[in-house]
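Following the same procedure, the fold was encoded as tokens, giving this record:
***
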Amino acid sequence: MESSTKPWSGGDKNGNLSFFSGLGLAVLSSVFIGSSFIIKKVSLLRLSRKGALRAGAGGFGYLRDWMWWLGFLTMGIGELANFAAYTVAPASLVTPLGALSVLVSAVLASKFLKETLNTLGKLGCLLCILGSVVLIIHSPKEQEVASVADLVSKLHNTYFLNYVIIVVLVTIIIIFYVGPRYGSRHVMVYITLCSSIGSLTVMACKGLGLSIGEIVSNPSDLSYWAACLFFLTVAVCIFVQMNYLNKALDLFNTSVVTPVYYVMFTSLVIVASAILFNEWGNMRLEDILGSICGFLTVIVAIFMLQGYRKDNCQKQSLLRNGKSEYTGVFYT
């Protein structure tokens, strides 16, 4: 089947440059984002020791702590690099490479949070890298949207509209009903909210990057309006993600929040991207299978990172207030 899209790789030097630029930006983003998890966790722990109202209980004392803002700035730099990567590379390549942030956070957590990994946990780090390499080799090499007008037409896709409606409904239910009742006991509650909203953030980021590029090269009223709409969407989604990710980090251990968030977030981004951009539409069967195997390898790796930690094996509490015990994915 002929593709009307512009190639990312092959004989096109500009395509190769775009692909590897996106790859480099995605790796850089993972380093900054992985570091930001630890910096913000250290800030939240310091505030907790001082007796401040915890973020998980609705407190916002972290907004007055310079270290939390350092973590916020670090995450901001990482997200900017991530945004740039999304504008020049497929989402199904950029998003799974977020697994590298798990490696960064695992190394830094062992240094600053005393969360030691045993041998099998370190093996998980190696598998994480190998899975990422497989993903890079088999990832889509074509851009599926060439203009803002093309993107706007794709936004009318009934399947994508249904996906957006489901995300909005899930978000409302968690914020007003599930979160207040079960959010402090089950790590999946706030992670589900952050991941579903995050998938829309990624789609909006790709749209914003495309709109900005079109404004620079060939401005039109549509590109200006689209840029404003996508920017507003990104800002709102990031605000919601930041708020509830803070709650999850405050209530649960970093070694649990980070891998579970990665799996949920990446899975939903791949689903949303497949629906909206059809990034997998022109891939060969072996590349699809390779991408799936690479992603599954990374999933196994990041759960090894948290499942074989020494304190998990000893069934120690992962909550700093000492009231909860770890029982797999859930806390009781």
Remarks:
- The chain has twelve helices and two strands.
- Confidence is low (pLDDT under 50) at residues 1-11, 315-332.
- Residues 83 and 205 are 6 Å apart (CA to CA).
- Strands lie at 326-327, 330-331.
